[in-house]
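Renewal narrative, Specific Aim 1. Our central claim is that a sequence can be written position by position from structural information alone. The example that follows is taken directly from our test logs and has not been curated for this report. It begins with the structure tokens describing the chain, in the order in which they were read.
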């Protein structure tokens, strides 16, 4: 990702995006994800080209009133981390900047590669999540 693309993407995340810890499946531990919602498919396709992820259509309950809208979801760990590392210096919204930094600094230390947690590790993971959601 070029510097100007990272800065542009940070602006999109600040304005229309979310940096979250989400569960992909019931009973699973949370993992980082980035979502961006927009009615502009061209914008989301550009972001997808530089950052990855998948675009989903959102249900339009009032098509006579509202435009169709879409959500880009970046949830693969390598894509999320690359995106956060490159956009972090340009994020201006405090909550999003803090969340990005928290994930970059702490997520790997509380997440075992094999996904198996000891009781102590699980407590640390839950403390990490609690701190994240306070931002």
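The sequence written for that structure reads:
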């Amino acid at each position: 990702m070029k510097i100007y693309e990272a800065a542009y993407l940070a602006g999109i995340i600040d304005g229309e995006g979310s940096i979250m810890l989400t569960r992909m499946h019931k009973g699973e531990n949370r993992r980082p994800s980035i979502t961006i919602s927009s009615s502009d498919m061209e914008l989301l396709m550009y972001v997808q080209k530089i950052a990855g992820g998948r675009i989903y259509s959102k249900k339009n309950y009032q098509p006579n009133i509202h435009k169709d809208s879409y959500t880009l979801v970046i949830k693969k760990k390598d894509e999320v981390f690359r995106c956060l590392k490159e956009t972090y210096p340009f994020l201006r919204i405090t909550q999003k900047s803090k969340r990005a930094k928290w994930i970059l600094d702490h997520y790997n230390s509380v997440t075992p590669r094999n996904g198996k947690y000891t009781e102590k590790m699980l407590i640390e993971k839950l403390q990490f999540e609690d701190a994240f959601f306070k931002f």
